[in-house]
Amino acid sequence: MFESFGQVFFCMIHSMVEFLPVSSSSFFVLLSGLISHKYIGSLHLPCAIASTVWFAPDILDEIKSLKKWFFYGIATLLPVITGFIISYYNIQLPETLFTRLIFNFISFIFFITSLFFSSNKKFQYSILDGFIVGILQSYAILLPGSSRMSSVLSFLNIEGLPFSESFFITVILSIPLNFGAAIMSRCLMPFNHLILCTLVSLFALLLINKFSEKFIFTSIIIRLILIFAIFYEVFIK
After folding, report:
1. Which contiguous run of DSSP H or E holds residue 114?
2. DSSP state, residue 46
3. Mean pLDDT within 74-101
């Protein structure tokens, strides 16, 4: 059971941060005193449900294309295999605040750089694109703090996709991974909190859709705050 308002508030914050190109797991680490670790995995469930509901018509359009089936399939399969291997063999990942600081910073630089090196070619949804996105998602799993969404958005920025399309692809790719994370956690949050956090996730998607032009700027500010917070914990506190 969530035993305090602080825990519920943190879950609501996660439901919004999950849609930003920042490391949500780093927020878990910094605010770990607010929530029992056994609920961490299940926090992805509201985001997966909200994403499915919000983008349902677009998802139905996407699955009509066999080419996109291969793209999404490969891009999803690689991180699923990576996550399964890590879980099955109980592989210990580099989970220190210092490594999170390094990976957050590298991911942040990659994201900023991608904004200035966008190409004008049309995105092909090719098998190679699927492999690249799959590798980037796997990389984000293997290196906690690097942010899956930030890595994929950076690649799609370089490919020249408009924000609406790159955000859509990134969120769609997160749906099976978030459902998988919730299932692997083997522990669900109380139903009333699940409903509340799902509504918060839907509200976050509404805000991003309405204020998309401010999305990148807001993400950069939040990422910088996160990096400085980790830096403070590592070197100053």
Report:
1. helix 97-114
2. H
3. 90
Using alpha carbons, select from 133, 131, 215 the residue that is nearest to residue 174: 133
Q: What is the pLDDT of residue 237?
A: 78
Q: What's the pTM value of the predicted model, to 2 decimals?
A: 0.91
181 touches 44 (CB < 8 A): yes
SS (H, E, C) 52-84: HHHCHHHHHHHCCCHHHHHHHHHHHHHHHHHHH
What is the residue range of 17's domain?
5-236
Q: Identify the three-state secondary structure at position 88.
A: helix
Number of domains the chain is built from: 1
The single-letter DSSP state of residue 42 is G
Other Cβ atoms closer than 10 A to 199: 14
Q: What is the Cα–Cα distance from 56 to 31, expressed in whole angstroms?
A: 33
Report the C-alpha gap between 234 and 147 in whole angstroms: 19
Tens-digit pLDDT profile for residues 25-60: 888 778 765 555 556 667 888 999 999 999 999 999
Q: What is the CA radius of gyration of the chain?
A: 17
Element counts in the chain: helices (H) and strands (E)? 11, 0
Closest to 159 in 3D by CA, of 110, 112, 118: 118
- Name the nearest CA neighbour of 230 among 91, 83, 47, 108: 108
Cβ atoms of 156 and 124 within 8 Å: the answer is no
- From residue 44, alpha-carbon distances to 67, 106, 213, 219, 237 in Å are 28, 24, 26, 19, 30
